[in-house]
Design goal:
By secondary structure, the protein is an alpha+beta fold. 32% of the residues lie in helices and 11% in strands. The strands form three sheets. A six-stranded mixed beta sheet has the order 5-6-7-8-9-10.
Length: 315
């Protein structure tokens, strides 16, 4: 078991089948979410918010997040069409291989932000370029949304408690995680999706996390509190009682690349255990088919056994 304070439990037996914060106070758990059936206006708002937050999504992904008990995507598609029919349109959609990929337009972003549900990310952009990409950028974005769905379904992080590509300062330049999730226990996790990155770049990214963790404190502090680093201010909690966020790598398939399990194993061979932060990996297949709360995670420096990320269920 891997928990936010980096305590390890016994690995799962072989063959066992087993949220950057959107809050007013960094590092604090999000408020309870409505679980009752959504009215049309509520669904319309959430359908607009989700691609504004995650950059893009398919109708299937939106249904999995917003209407998991519905058997089809009719309600989601109706809400998307209503948003598309606005003047100007609040969402857009390219089509590829009989699939539509929806994003929030420049006109839709201010309306989504006006709800107060989006984190105040400077320079927020639409997902149009990602949704229309033919270079694998779209598949990378979709893999991220599938990861969000897996955490949401396991009640480990609500889908609204994710931020995408937020810059974090280090002495050698910005660290930009694919996403930051506020987890159910109020701690956070950095999430990286890998499809095509070279092993050298993956290790360099890991080193950038270490540079962020070990960056010197900034500010003057005060009589009651010593100066704190950026990660401590953002994720440490009011009493500095939390450890550095988990660093999670999810290996997803890509054409003409080694299988995700192979890439994951090669990453573990090259990475080194760091006692100051917990680094865990899985594949998108394990994550989506078994569940984010099941023993699907391999921890760097702790062998080949897969373990769970044990977090309290939200109240």
């Amino acid at each position: 078991m891997v928990v936010a304070d980096q305590t390890l439990d016994s690995p799962a037996p072989a063959g066992c089948n087993s949220s950057s914060p959107v809050t007013d106070v960094p590092g604090e758990a999000s408020r309870p979410r409505k679980t009752a059936a959504k009215a049309g206006a509520d669904l319309r708002g959430e359908v607009l918010l989700t691609p504004a937050q995650l950059r893009l999504a398919t109708p299937r992904q939106l249904k999995a997040l917003l209407l998991p008990h519905q058997q089809d995507t009719d309600h989601v598609r109706r809400a998307l069409r209503n948003l598309l029919d606005e003047s100007p349109a609040l969402v857009g959609r390219p089509h590829r291989a009989q699939q539509s990929y929806w994003y929030c337009t420049p006109s839709g972003l201010p309306e989504a932000a006006a709800s107060g549900e989006l984190a105040p990310t400077a320079g927020r952009t639409t997902g149009k370029r990602i949704a229309a990409s033919k270079t694998g950028l779209r598949e990378h974005g979709l893999a991220l949304v599938d990861t969000v769905i897996a955490f949401h379904q396991a009640e480990m992080a609500h889908h609204a408690d994710w931020q995408v590509e937020v810059a974090h300062p280090t002495p050698s330049g910005n660290l930009v995680p694919d996403a930051v999730a506020l987890l159910a226990d109020g701690s956070s996790a950095f999430v990286e999706i890998d499809r095509t990155m070279s092993y050298a770049r993956l290790i360099a990214k890991l080193e950038r996390y270490e540079a962020y963790r070990s960056a010197p404190a900034t500010g003057r502090g005060n009589a009651a509190r010593a100066p704190r680093s950026h990660w401590q201010e953002t994720y440490g909690g009011p009493h500095l009682d939390r450890r550095f966020p988990l660093v999670l790598f999810v290996f997803a398939p890509a054409p003409r690349r080694a299988a995700p399990d192979t890439r994951e194993a090669a990453f573990h061979h090259r990475a080194h255990r760091n006692h100051q932060m917990t680094v865990a990996t899985t594949t998108l297949h394990h994550l989506t088919h078994d569940g984010a709360d099941r023993p699907v995670w391999r921890v760097v420096g702790h062998g080949k056994e897969r373990r769970t990320l044990a977090l309290p269920k939200p109240r």
